[in-house]
Amino acid sequence: MNENVLTAESEPLATLLQGIRKTVKKAVRLTAEYRPPLNGERYLTDKEVAERLKVSRRTLQEYRNARLLPFIVFGGKVLYKECDIERLLEGNYRKAIR
């Protein structure tokens, strides 16, 4: 038999398994306790919205000026509610004609 076989009782493997168990416990606790900021509402930056809508940040500025997109200015930073962006997309969705 090979004497280099590792078992769960082998010190290096036992230490590794213990570390994995601790990490899994922490991950489970974090996911159970996770609450998105601001009452569950997620806010997006203009960069994130531009990427999602596939438009330039300048185009977003034009949409804001025309009041096509709801937005918040907080501390000089422009933020958008994710639900407002989703609602805007759903409201402008056009089904294909068959």
Describe the structure.
The protein has 98 residues and is mainly alpha-helical. It has a domain at 43-91: Arc Repressor Mutant, subunit A (Orthogonal Bundle), CATH 1.10.10. It has four helices and three strands; from the N terminus they run H-E-H-H-E-E-H. The chain has a three-stranded antiparallel sheet. The longest helix has 23 residues, at 11-33. The protein is elongated, with a radius of gyration of 25 Å. The model has no long low-confidence stretch (mean pLDDT 87). It holds the Pfam family HTH_17.
Task: Briefly say what this structure is.
The chain is mostly helical and 98 residues long.
Write the layout of secondary structure elements.
Layout: H1 11-33, E1 43-45, H2 46-53, H3 57-65, E2 72-74, E3 77-81, H4 82-91
Antiparallel strand pairs: 1-3, 2-3
